[in-house]
Amino acid sequence: MSYIEVTYPAEKPAFYRMLKEQLALYTADSPNLTAALANFSAVLAQAFPEANWAGFYLADGNELAVGPFQGRPAVSRIGYGKGVCGTAWKEDCAQVVEEVSCFAGHIACDCNTHSEIVIPLRKADGTIWGVLDMDSVLPGHFTEEDRIGLEECVKLLPAPN
Ligand code: SME
Predict the structure, then answer these.
(1) What distance in angstroms lies between residue 85's CA and the mean position of ligand 1's atoms?
(2) Within its chain, how far is the Cα of 33 from the centroid?
(3) Pocket of ligand 1, candidates 56, 96, 107: which has the most ligand atoms within 8 Å of its Cβ, to mutate?
(4) Is 103 exposed, middle or buried (0-12, 13-18, 19+ CB in 10 A)?
(5) If we measure between CA atoms, which residue out of 130, 82, 127 comes closest to residue 106?
(6) What is residue 3's predicted lDDT score, i.e. its pLDDT?
């Protein structure tokens, strides 16, 4: 399948309707979880041009290990409760950070990053198996609408057993 460029609407409800369609399109026939996560992060990078990092950290024992992503090379492992990602895991809820320099313990991977959103990935029983992480060069880029929209989007991913 060749990628067809789409223009995302500015209005958030319409943006997330199109984003979910695109994510479903490019992950529907994924042969495995890695393939789904790789295309998922590629679709997000197209949809959020101001995002300088979009991808996954996956639970591996008591740490998160970097998974498929788009962006500059990033830290490989994040401890439980560490950084924005580990905080989302420990506190069991999404984190929306308007300015990362104001988040105590933020782990900087790209000095151009100003804002960040981290969405937990959950199994059917609610257990967190990883997180979606997105960084933006714009301060205050991610909003509650994005949290709600992205929480819906990650439900499209196949959870591991
Ligand atoms: N900023 C993250 C680390 C991962 S990078 O943003 C890709 C954190 O504080 O957990």
Answers:
(1) 6
(2) 15
(3) 107
(4) middle
(5) 82
(6) 84
**CATH dotted code for 12-156:** 3.30.450.40
> pLDDT for 123-154, tens place per residue?
999 999 999 999 999 999 999 999 999 999 99
Q: Compute the distance between CA of residue 16 and CA of residue 103 in angstroms, rounded to an integer.
A: 27
Please give the backbone phi and psi of residue 127, each rounded to the nearest 5 degrees, phi first.
Answer: -60, 140
Q: Which residue, chain included where needed, has tokens 């895991």?
A: 89
- The CA distance from 83 to 153, in Å, is 23
Domain boundaries, the chain: 12-156
pLDDT digits (tens, 9 = 90+) for 27-70: 988 889 999 999 999 999 999 999 999 999 999 999 999 999 99
Q: Atom 6 (ligand 1): residue with closest C-alpha?
A: 109
